[in-house]
Amino acid sequence: MAERGRPRNFDRAAALQQAMNIFWQRGYEGASLCDLTAAMGINAPSLYAAFGCKEALFREAVQLYSEREGLLTARALTEQPTARQAVEALLRDNVGAFTDPKKPAGCMIVLAATNCSTANQAISDHLLERRRFITAALRRRLQRAIKEGDLPRVDVTAIANYYTTLLQGLSIQARDGASRAALNRIVDCGMATWNTLIETAKTASLIKA
Amino acid sequence: MAERGRPRNFDRAAALQQAMNIFWQRGYEGASLCDLTAAMGINAPSLYAAFGCKEALFREAVQLYSEREGLLTARALTEQPTARQAVEALLRDNVGAFTDPKKPAGCMIVLAATNCSTANQAISDHLLERRRFITAALRRRLQRAIKEGDLPRVDVTAIANYYTTLLQGLSIQARDGASRAALNRIVDCGMATWNTLIETAKTASLIKA
DNA sequence: GCATTTATATATCGAACGATACAGAATCAG
DNA sequence: CTGATTCTGTATCGTTCGATATATAAATGC
What does the pLDDT read at residue A1? Predict the structure, then answer.
């Protein structure tokens, strides 16, 4: 353990988590360095020494968020036996997280950089990539269901995009103060229509072909 | 018309429209005064003399946006004969507007202040109020449909919230670069399930009662 | 002990932010 | 014409932004 020099005086992981919460709550540009250092309990030079710059800190915070909160989504998609159960678990689990009073409302990936100045386009693009990754994961899960015979041959892109859109809308609703019950009521609507939706995607896909 | 003093050298309405476009594209905080004055073709003092301050300019821009783009929604809700047609027209017309290449993608009311610094909470609240107004208009339209016998007695709040969520999700999808065809494909999914959804909202409402 | 290394706290830095002071230009009333 | 009024362009204002220079404190290696 060749830890030369004065040892760090704060818990880097704990500080990162605080930074994540601030970014989650206020967005990339809405979170000032002053906000960040105050929440992290350190001064600016310590922040820069430990994380590089604001953008690098944000990317680490997004990574932490993905590992923490994205776990819900990943588990819902992999562990549920059927596509329908996977989609419903994905929606319900995220609604639960979106309305956890101990956390900022809604999804950080969706909300933290919806509008950025042109100088921070890279930040927007980074989150856009993450959003597309989630949609792709859902699409792959639906494809797996077709292969497993759990789902008829449907337009998986359409279904995945539809539920992604609903999920992103739920983030806005959560941020706007909707209750967990209200959001679950919306999920009820989204899931009640599953059978019809699959039929539609099937026929539409056939019409296209 | 006692127009005293030196006359204004620019078209106030045209300048406001340019400001609206900048706010629409970059959001309230993402749009700097430099961006605004450049797009409006005027200098800062002219902007302040004509509009007061950045926040007042933004509120006027939101008002203009509501009158211009909100017209689509208002017309869809009032002019279509049935609730189903009204909702579908609302979604289709907004998808058309969201993907108009001559305009910024997505809805300004949804995207322009999703994450604001605490100093500009009033801006967020203003747009939140507008969003709630739109949901309320949809809910009233559904209630009207029940009164007209066009719709069974359903949980109109749930249906209105569901389609609002979908519409807000569509704004994010549009901003993320989704094509008009892709968004219409999502609307297909949302509308294909109308009958099932109404049945569900009916029974659920009865269960509740 | 002493040199080296790294982290900390204070005190900024230059740039960009929203917003104005000011002088000059353009119109009106008389 | 003169005086009053309003708009315009230049040149800032004070503040906050993200990011650092500097000196000191706390650890290690020898």
Answer: 47
